[in-house]
Amino acid sequence: MKKGVVQNIKISDFNYTLPDEKIAKYPLPQRDSSKLLIYKDSQLSSSNFSSLPDQLPGNSLLIFNNTRVIHARLHFMKATGANIEIFCLSPFSPKDYIMNFQQKGECSWICMIGNAKKWKEDLLSMEIDIKGLRVVLNAQKIDMAEMSNRNGSDVIVRFTWDNSDVTFSELLEVAGKLPIPPYLNRPAEEKDDETYQTLYSHVEGSVAAPTAGLHFTPAVMEGLAAKGVKTAEVTLHVGAGTFKPVKSDNLAGHEMHTEFISVPRETIEKIINHTGDIIVVGTTSMRTVESLYYIGKKLRTNPDTEPYKLSVNQWEPYEEDENEDPYIVLRAILDYLENTEQDQLISATRLLIAPGYNFHYPDALITNFHQPQSTLLLLVSAFVGGYWTTIYEYALQNNFRFLSYGDSSLLWKNPK
């Protein structure tokens, strides 16, 4: 589908009434006891998530997003009594996530500021007890000229602290709060530290959970393995913009946020060699896997493409003809990794998947139920060929729980 057609999609066509009582404010005590809506061949049915191994063919490949949510919200109290919240979005210096988390003494982040009018140029400080030691953490805004292509109210904050034995990751873990979604209308609680992380999360960086994975338990994973289902991992660090509703009348006015992605060589090889169905867990895994196609096309055209030019733009799928074999372009990525002596592809994506998008790899999607007028709902609509209204009406009428802590769905791609 051409870019102009997609840009003219009206977001009002992706609205529905979501009563507050349908929003799950807390998860169920047992993760895999959540309900599972199944959509296949235009037919709808219900089951429990614990039955997932029975729903998937034995020779399937399940792809997970292994990102882990960080304690991204820091609350500083000024001498005046004003409470300033600093919401860490993504690392600025060093830009590499791992390097930034390992910093001792100083680092900078792109942040959103709560109660920003109360914070001018003064230095914010807080005392933290960590490892039995008193640590003073300071925060100061950096000149905005250092930051290009920033989003709206985002600012750069330089953090400094007075103990060179403590990493920034350790500081966040102790001083920060888990950023649970605002639509839960409650503060984060201690148990959210466990329930708002997936079973397989281990790469720090997200400010929101890839919630489709919250339903998996050891028992489900064991059942999948016994069935012969293979697994692979990707990383997409979920940004704050993922769950924001589209506020413009049509897609032309919506700017997708940039998110870090990392895909191991092993995962790309598994996708190339797999002969059965490919099922992605969550919209973040979907966007990561599909971004590989556009990165591979660039490398197939020019194997020496500079790393920063590999990042996927939101309109790329709608500007070029789909004339490449999706598996041949993946081999171009493998060649690139071999030539640059890397074990994983590291890049970024702003990929917007909307109705009219041509999917290249996944056969099915496991996902929760999303907010009205969100890009996540647009992705679901694109995958099921526009039948999202039928699916969501069924979920509402059959008491499915919605959003991050809600129930799940297994959606099979509509055949063309």
What is the count of helical runs? 11
Instruction: Please state roughly what percent of the residues sit in beta strands, choosing from under 5%, 5-15%, 15-25%, 25-35%, 35-45% or over 45%.
Output: 25-35%
The outline comes out as globular
Physical arrangement of strands within the biggest beta sheet: 2-1-17-16-14-3-12-13-15
Structural class: alpha/beta
End-to-end Cα distance, whole Å, is 14 Å
Main sheet: strands, sense, barrel: 9 strands, mixed
Write the element-wise H/E pattern from the N-terminal end onward: HEEHEEEEHEEEEHHEHEEHEHHEEHHE
Low-pLDDT windows of residues: 146-150
* Total strand segments: 17
Percent of residues in helices comes to: 10-25%
Average pLDDT metric: 93
Radius of gyration: 22 Å
List keywords for this structure.
416 residues; 9-stranded mixed β-sheet; 6-stranded antiparallel β-sheet; 11 helices
Q: What do you see in this structure?
A:
It contains 11 helices and 17 strands. It has 416 residues and is α/β, with parallel strands linked by helices. It has a 9-stranded mixed beta sheet with strand order 2-1-17-16-14-3-12-13-15, with helices on one face. A 6-stranded antiparallel beta sheet has the order 5-6-7-10-9-8, covered by helices on one side. The longest helix has 19 residues. About 1% of the residues have low confidence.
Which SSEs are present, and which pair or pack?
Elements: H1 3-7, E1 35-40, E2 43-48, H2 52-55, E3 60-65, E4 67-69, E5 73-77, E6 83-93, H3 97-101, E7 106-114, E8 124-130, E9 133-141, E10 155-161, H4 168-175, H5 192-195, E11 203-206, H6 218-227, E12 230-236, E13 259-264, H7 265-273, E14 277-281, H8 283-301, H9 326-339, E15 344-349, E16 364-368, H10 375-383, H11 388-397, E17 408-412
Parallel strand pairs: 1-17, 3-12, 3-14, 4-11, 14-16
Antiparallel strand pairs: 1-2, 5-6, 6-7, 7-10, 8-9, 9-10, 12-13, 13-15, 16-17
